[in-house]
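Students often ask what a 'structure token' actually looks like in practice. Rather than answer in the abstract, let us consider MATE family efflux transporter, a protein of 447 residues. Its sequence is given first.
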Amino acid sequence: MSSGGHPIRTVDRQILALAVPALGALVAEPLFVLVDSAVVGHLGTAALAGLALASTILVTAVGLCVFLAYATTAAVSRQLGAGDRSRAMQMGVDGMWLGLATGVVLGAALWFGAEPLVAALGADDEVARQAVTYLHWSAPGLPGMLVVLAATGALRGLQNTHTPLGVAAVGAVVNAALNVLLVYGLDRGIGGSGLGTAVTQLGMGAFLAVVVGRGARAAGARLPPHARGIAANARAGGPLLVRTLSLRLAILVTVWVATGLGAVSLAGHQVVNAVWGLAAFALDALAIAAQALVGHALGAADVARTRAVLRRTLQWGVAGGAVLGVAVGGASWAYVRLFSADDDVRAAAVAALLVAAVTMPMAGWVFVLDGVLIGAGDGRFLAWAGIATLVVYVPAALAVRAWAPAGSAGLVCLWVAFAGVFMAARAITTGWRARGSAWMVTGSATR
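Now compare that with the structural description of the same chain:
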């Protein structure tokens, strides 16, 4: 069986060759949060709730800069498909310099703004103290993390997902060891967890910068910072920044609602959110493969292969979401014990995890379509779609804040709004776009 002259088995092999290593790298990233949650959770409910706020702020800050990876993947893969490896590598180098500069500014902003940011989320005194402490110790790692994003994007565009996998795997192990050593061995509390993560991120960024730098030099690209190239990368990532901002605002609204439902709901939300992040990044491995393959196909002006990648990655995404849903929901009663000894927190987390499990197939559809459109350079549409979905979600979240009870019932209502209403809005908008052809711009230049 074939599609447009491209056998399905060939497309499947290409998808899996990129997605399987990307899966390991992506799963390693939320494992940082899972390890932090498991280690800090046994310091008490206040510490776990504080980590929920601090990690949300950090993930939001890093997530806003995910354009460093996504835009770089799309640009590098398109230039590679068009046959210009030197230009492809130059875009990767410029992206890393942009990541470093952005990370320094963002890290300083979070360090000095930790207290007002935490206060804005409405935490009480002890939870706020824990959150601020974690932010102060983890903020110095942001330059490393953003360099990791840009370097990983460049390597994905080159269809090299094995190197990011190796670095992420080593980083996850180092992070776990440092967390246990600093939190328990040296009795540094939640601050030790933040410091361990920061040190790990800086090391990962340095290693990947060397790898991409060597490849760029071999291809004849320049290594020093170049203002014009950095500015071009920033402009290309602008629409994706807007798209990501809309997603992160939705997550912040969700945490704000969970905070208003009480410490038990907030702690339970941290557990559910950590598990959701693990599953979401696993599904996003297919989106990474779609980004690289779609960008390469459009750069080579191969529309038939673009359509074949779209169809097959969507099929894989929905099926993968169904499998993950069974695992997330079926085993929830067992693994929540890793995160908290509080029976109320466990009960709330299990109930909300069942909601998350049911919506996983739809999430697989959404993440893959995001990857396809990002790989095509369709950032402007994604920006407008992100704003539209946020407009749909906010009233649902506000209704939960106003009328839902505290505890398990309230957390379930919140996840019905987030994993149900919000994800459905994203599925409809991206699905409508993918049915047309306006996003399939071919050649080395994008819109």
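One point worth highlighting: The chain has a mean pLDDT of 85. Ask yourself how you might have guessed this from the sequence alone, and why that guess would often be unreliable.
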